[in-house]
């Protein structure tokens, strides 16, 4: 049994349950004029997360314990966790564009990318593509902050 996989799988299933409860709102409060329920997409992603968590836990139960030289937590892991906490804290204040650009840039920098002009261009392009996807294809408005 690989204990880390079982624990991670159970935590993912628990997180999925918590996230699913956050999507249980009255549909009349959030329906758009063309009767699109914006909670369908997040619920699908949550279901996929729960299924993957269950598969990870089952895989952990079937595998033999493997000794790995890679630590579970490292400075990079803690750095990315800190970036994600700051991202969640500033998301509604400064908006999608600024917070997502900063978070994407910071995560890539922590992971070792050092070509800053290319990194800035990729982060900027990614934010624009995601905004276009949500705004024009999925018709889900993203938070607008004080800057953008």
UniProtKB/TrEMBL annotation:
Q: Which Pfam families match?
A: TctB
Question: Which ranges does the record mark as transmembrane?
Answer: 43-61, 82-110, 116-138
Q: Does the keyword RNA-binding apply?
A: no
Domain named DUF1468: which ranges? 7-143
Q: What domain of life does the native source organism fall in?
A: Bacteria
Name the UniProt key words of this record, in alphabetical order. Membrane, Transmembrane, Transmembrane helix
Q: What is this protein called?
A: Tripartite tricarboxylate transporter TctB family protein
């Amino acid at each position: 049994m690989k204990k880390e996989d079982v624990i991670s799988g159970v935590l993912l299933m628990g997180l999925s349950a918590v996230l699913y409860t956050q999507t249980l709102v009255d549909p009349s409060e959030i329906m758009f004029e063309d009767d699109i329920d914006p909670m369908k997409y997040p619920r699908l992603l949550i279901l996929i997360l729960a299924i993957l968590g269950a598969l990870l836990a089952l895989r952990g139960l079937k595998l033999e314990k493997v000794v790995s030289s890679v630590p579970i937590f490292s400075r990079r892991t803690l750095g990315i966790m800190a970036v994600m906490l700051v991202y969640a804290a500033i998301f509604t204040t400064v908006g999608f564009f600024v917070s997502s650009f900063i978070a994407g840039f910071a995560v890539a920098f922590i992971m070792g990318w050092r070509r800053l002009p290319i990194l800035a261009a990729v982060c900027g392009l990614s934010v624009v593509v995601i905004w276009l996807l949500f705004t024009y294809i999925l018709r889900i408005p993203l938070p607008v902050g004080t800057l953008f």
